[in-house]
Amino acid sequence: MSALTSRAPRRAFRIAAAAAIVPAADGVLTDAHLHAERRSRKVGPLPLKARMTLAAAERLRAALGDADRATPAGRTGVSLGTLFGAIDVAEQCVGTVRAEGFEQVTPSWYAAGLPNATAAIVASLFDWRGPNLTFLGYQAGLDAIVGACRQLAAGHADAVCAGGFDLPSARYVARADAPLRDAQALHPGAGVVWLAAGEARAGDLGRIVGWSQQALDADAFDAAHARGFPALVAAALPDAPADTAPAVHVVRPGAPGTIDRLAASAPVALAEGLAGAWRPGLHALVVKGLGALATCVIVDNQPGRE
């Protein structure tokens, strides 16, 4: 177990809106889950994961009030996380080489399929010209939200579209190792929130009031979970009373009986919680990565409360 890293912002960051793309029980993406297909003579069609993430961002922007939608383009950032990154594009390239030869591989496939290409595509389509970040790992969706808060705290942006996405390939799903293979299913998904600096506004869904991270092996994580993660909560809320006990929501790889959406799991859980699944009050969303890192974000879904 390692030392904690934390950040308790002097002023909480607004969650103005949230959106998620969650396929039906069969895990199949339909046109309703995807942004309209766009093609370019140089680049070709957009990758499926980009169209899925664009659809989430489009729903997010549609849910914003006029003032948030008017945030200057140069002060609006994008921060996204993914576990799989470009594995689908890599498999497409390898499969094409085997079936048709290397000359049939389009160089733009790789460029458009890089993990950070999705954030760039979202920023380009919506003209969000602020900080553009990509995080990698199972916990990367929540890390991207923390990264967005850091950009806001540093004054580099006024608002950030933040969250996670993943599109597991059929080949990977069929060969998934523990712990991911213990999940009921591995499905695609995308979840994003609109984080902004400034005072709470009517219609806000909540606010992020702190976060922390710690390296915990599996046994230490389970022991901390049984106690409600007191060290993570205390690090995220150093000025809170000692008996502060937010409701805890845990996302971990391959939890038995769950549909795992990988790096999208935590942002989707946050979006669903803010949509009404969570009771009013403080909530600790904790994600255990495939490695030792655990990330905790504290959310207050009563944005008008001081």
Per-chain topology:
Layout: E1 5-7, E2 13-21, E3 39-40, E4 44-45, H1 48-63, H2 66-69, E5 76-82, H3 87-100, H4 107-113, H5 115-126, E6 132-136, H6 140-153, E7 159-166, H7 170-174, E8 185-186, E9 189-196, E10 206-215, H8 218-226, H9 230-236, E11 247-251, E12 259-260, H10 265-277, E13 282-288, E14 293-300
Parallel strand pairs: 5-6, 5-7, 8-12, 11-13
Antiparallel strand pairs: 1-10, 2-9, 2-10, 3-4, 7-9, 10-14, 13-14
Helix pairs in contact: 1-5
Comma- or semicolon-separated keywords:
10 helices, alpha/beta, ten-stranded mixed beta sheet, Peroxisomal Thiolase, Chain A, domain 1, 2 domains, two-stranded antiparallel sheet, 306 residues
What does the model show?
The mean pLDDT is 90. The longest helix has 16 residues, at 48-63. It is globular and about 65 Å long. By secondary structure, it is of the alpha/beta class. Helix 1 crosses helix 5 (115-126). Strands 1, 2, 5, 6, 7, 9, 10, 11, 13 and 14 form a 10-stranded mixed sheet that branches. The chain has a two-stranded antiparallel ribbon with strand order 3-4. It has helices at 48-63, 66-69, 87-100, 107-113, 115-126, 140-153, 170-174, 218-226, 230-236, 265-277; strands at residues 5-7, 13-21, 39-40, 44-45, 76-82, 132-136, 159-166, 185-186, 189-196, 206-215, 247-251, 259-260, 282-288, 293-300. The chain starts with a strand and ends in a 6-residue tail after the last strand. It folds into 2 domains: 14-196, Peroxisomal Thiolase, Chain A, domain 1 (3-Layer(aba) Sandwich); 206-300, no CATH class. Residues 51-169 form the Beta-ketoacyl synthase-like N-terminal domain. GO terms for molecular function: acyltransferase activity. This is Beta-ketoacyl synthase-like N-terminal domain-containing protein.
